[in-house]
Design goal:
It contains four helices and 19 strands. The chain is mainly β. It has two domains: 1-64, no CATH class; 72-467, Porin. The strands form two sheets. It has a 17-stranded antiparallel beta sheet that branches. Strands 13-14 form a two-stranded antiparallel ribbon. The radius of gyration is 23 Å and the shape is globular. The two termini are 37 Å apart. Residues 1-22 and 56-83 have low confidence and may be disordered.
């Protein structure tokens, strides 16, 4: 069943259930329940879109979080009031400040809404429901169940995850151990592009940025989390036991670019990977008025094979550090430094890649790949209000426009499996660095942006891109 047929079936079903006359009071009651259920689904969809887009589509009477977070006053002796969700893993909403690092993301930490919706070249249209995991900070002891179930109409396959966790909450500290089983189309590209942005890109322009592979197995973990009004920390030790397999593109439909085709979904190294994964994540938001200010740090170390058995023997390390630094009320400097290395037989689905959006926008998407990586991204953002504050229309329109200047530099190399972790970085020279410069125009929060990038090594055409999220 292709996407068009599926959408028409859904529309006809909704219309038939809405307009058929009720025969009795029981039918009226059932019709009312169905109508409320449909309205609830629509609301969940809009709320999920709102979180990604940072806008308001569906009115809600619930009290909104304040736009401005101020961690400390001038005397540095007052903390902000904690108005965040008591069931969330994080201290502050992601749309209110820094961009969190999702390079090491667990299905058990899925923070999407109850209704699942995505579109890509492998699953096609994917629809489903989930009960997200909740985190009970104020409870001494809490047993939680969570899971999801959905269907990919392109690959004609059900996908799911189901898990349970025992939590021990102590104010702003939470200890947890849990286990989860899953069968899903995974991706290593969460740190490059979000779900909604990728879905719209695939639906509208027939370009799926994410690469996908099948992952079936289970995960067990121990976690220690800390959450304060402007800071959250997560430390996790996990055991991963998964079977991996390659997935092929199943659909080739979009609203536009109808003469183009989706790029092929690259093959991976199939087989079983058993590994221990250590992760540490720290996020701090000092303040968020016009420009974000804070830190984001992500560390991960994965050890596969040896006594754990499995089909692959490797160790893999990634560090990602981000700083968001306001210069004044109207301008900001944002910086990301990322480094990665490995030892052993690293499978394709664990390789490091650079090029294209969120890394080196002037180069081809994922143009470079290897088992050594260095990446630096710097952007200077200035709001038009700095130049036109207090002016009348039409210059007042600049109040909601940002000018963005950026530069990026990256290094990727492939070395022998038996070399040490630091081997290969001696090839890091100015000659081997790939870099670009560019500028762009964005919205007030910097999420929507139209950018123009040029390579610095050779003369080449400008690379034009449009984003719905900040690159980091």
């Amino acid at each position: 069943m292709n996407v068009k047929i599926t959408l028409w079936v859904v529309i006809i079903f909704f219309m038939s259930t809405s307009f058929l006359p009720a025969q009795d009071s029981t039918s009226v009651e059932r019709s009312g329940k169905l109508k409320n259920r449909i309205e609830s689904i629509v609301k969940d969809i809009f709320k999920q879109v709102e979180k990604e887009l940072g806008t308001t589509i569906y009115e809600d009477d619930e009290e909104e979080l304040e736009d401005d977070y101020i961690a400390e006053d001038e005397n540095n002796d007052e903390e902000i009031e904690d108005k965040t969700d008591k069931l969330s893993l994080y201290a502050f909403p992601v749309d209110k400040g820094i961009v969190r690092n999702y390079s090491t993301k667990f299905i058990s930490q899925n923070i999407e809404d109850k209704f699942l919706f995505r579109y890509n070249r492998v699953e096609g249209l994917f629809l489903g429901f989930q009960s997200p995991q909740k985190f009970y900070w104020d409870e001494n002891r809490k047993f939680t169940l969570f899971g999801s179930l959905g269907y990919g109409f392109g690959e004609h396959r059900w996908r799911f995850n189901v898990g349970a966790a025992q939590q021990f909450g102590f104010g702003n500290h939470l200890f947890e151990f849990g286990i989860e089983g899953h069968s899903f189309a995974d991706t290593r590209d969460n740190w490059l592009v979000g779900n909604l942005e990728n879905t719209l890109s695939a639906l509208v322009s027939r370009y799926d940025y994410r690469d996908h592979y099948g992952r079936n197995g289970y995960t067990g973990w121990l976690g220690l989390y800390v959450k304060k009004p402007t800071t959250d920390m997560q430390f996790k030790l996990s055991y991963l036991n998964d079977d991996y397999d390659s997935l092929s593109a199943k659909v080739n439909w979009s609203l536009f670019r109808t003469k183009k085709s989706f790029r092929e979904n690259p093959a991976i190294n199939p087989g079983e990977i058993r590994s221990l994964l250590f992760t540490f994540d720290l996020h701090n938001l000092s303040k968020s008025e016009y420009m974000p200010c804070g830190w984001s740090l992500s560390l991960s170390a994965e050890f596969a094979g040896k006594t754990l058995k499995g089909g692959y023997d490797f160790s893999r390390y990634v560090i990602d550090l981000r700083r968001y630094q306001p210069i004044s009320q109207y301008d900001n400097i944002n910086l990301r430094l990322r480094a990665a290395t490995s030892e052993g037989n690293l499978p394709l689905q664990r390789m490091y890649e650079l090029g294209g959006i969120s890394t080196l926008p002037a180069f081809g998407y994922k143009q470079f790949a290897g088992n050594r990586l260095l990446l630096a991204n710097i952007e200077y953002i200035v709001n038009g209000k700095m130049f036109a504050e207090g002016t009348d229309f039409p210059l007042s329109l600049l109040d909601n426009v940002n000018l963005i200047l950026f530069t990026d530099a990256g290094f990727v190399d492939q070395v022998q499996d038996n070399l040490s972790l630091d081997s290969g970085f001696d090839n890091f020279t100015f000659k081997n660095i790939k870099s670009d410069v560019g500028f762009g125009f964005g919205t007030r929060d910097g999420k929507y942006r139209l950018g123009f990038a040029w390579r610095t090594d050779i003369k080449s055409p400008v690379s034009v891109f449009f984003r719905m999220n900040r690159p980091f």
